[in-house]
Amino acid sequence: MRYLAWLLAAACALPAYALTKVDIYSTEVVVDAQQPNADELARQKGMLEVLVKASGDLNAASNPVVKKALGKSSQYITQLGYTQVDGEQAMRLSFNSQQINTLLTQADLPSWPVDRKNVMVWLVEDSGYDRTIVWEHSNSQAANQLKKEANRRGLPITFPIGDFDDITGIQTTDLWGGFVGPIAEATARYPVDAIAVIRLQGNNLRYTLYDQTPDKLGRNTLSPVTGSTSGELAIASAIDEISDYYASQNAATTLGESAGMVTVSFSRMSSADAFFTLERALGRLASTAKVDVAEVSGDVVTMRVSLLGSLEAFEEEVLKLGLVKKLEQAPVEVPVQAPVQDSEVLATEEAITPELGTPEQGTAVEQSEGGVAPTDTATDELVTDGITELGKPAQPQLSFEWLY
How far apart are CA 244 and CA 241, in angstroms? Predict the structure, then answer.
């Protein structure tokens, strides 16, 4: 029993560093009741916040695919409710993670994984006559703002609890001066992945980010990330810079076709004007995220279209353009080679008749236990014609004909 207790104590003493899973698909947005379409604007703002958290890209709002998708924000929402934020009515929103990730792919935006580094924040406030360390339970407006901005970017942060060990383990001079030894020792008890020392003096902020666990701090030559901001948005700017740093390291753009991809062919495209008119018209449709030309063969243009809406909505919008008409496609009939029966197997090589040809005349001959059977290579090619590697017909899902 004593041995088991010793093992448990030893396990608890070891640092257990692990990435933190962040809920990036939910948010709370204050509803501006003064706006005539307040709820719709709140849904769009909430969706944009989620897209920024999921991608790590602050400029997601300027993406043309995102702009178009925001108009359909209700299609991405899985849960909606109302709450209070700082005494104001707010909307609590949860979005479909798969749809959000698909939208990131369609918009060519990166995806920042939900498992992220937890950053320990040592915040020191300089009031002009005194410097104090901000603890988790401190009534600090700056700390509350840091938490709010970190939540906005999906950056997990931890504040020191401020118990006896914290108070006696580190001094304001250690943090303000950036002495890594005391900082590492004071942070060692927390299961975090990085350390940020923030020095705040009025509206002037300086930060030092040590992108390493406390046990490695000061033991290697890894240079810290430093920055400074000022003004009313100093805290927000600092969090943005730190978040951008981690997003640039861990976010990646997903390549390949998205779940909402459809292949469309357009025939009788006999002029460049027709092609560019059609391409522009498809790109402006509310149901399309992106249009790529896959192939041009004669007067037939094949395009791959990423859809924001359903296939039916896309088809309806295309026809409403008045530029094309739909062509009904007949299913592709794939000839299947009948299996060779035992009675059809030739017993001897002499059974091959001149009509079937000889090996020199283009018919391959296979040797089997019962004798020799001819194999028509042309037939084999016929069986696979029009079939993709996955066994699906290699034909567009939709076909249209240009009218002009």
Answer: 5
**For residues 385 and 393, what is the distance between their CA atoms, to the nearest angstrom?**
9
According to DSSP, residue 118 is labeled P
- Axis-axis angle for helices 38-55, 141-153 (nearest 10): 80
Beta-strand relationship, 261-267 and 252-253:
unpaired
Strand bridging mode 157-158 / 131-134:
unpaired
Q: Whose structure tokens read 């995102």?
A: 66
Helix/strand/coil for 196: strand
- Residue 331, classified by CB atoms within 10 Å of its CB into exposed (0-12), middle (13-18) or buried (19+), is exposed
Q: Tell me if residue 401 falls in helix, strand or coil.
A: strand
Rounded to an integer, what distance in angstroms lies between the CA atom of residue 373 and that of residue 240?
72
What is the pLDDT, as a whole number, of residue 127? 87
Give the per-residue pLDDT at 291: 85
Closest by Cα among 114, 118, 116 to 187: 118
Q: What pTM, to 2 d.p., does this model score? A: 0.69
Cβ atoms of residues 383 and 337 within 8 Å: yes
DSSP-assigned states of every residue in 3-25: HHHHHHHHHHHS----PEE---S
**Integer Cα distance of 400 and 323 in angstroms:** 10
User: Which tokens belong to 207?
Assistant: 């930060």
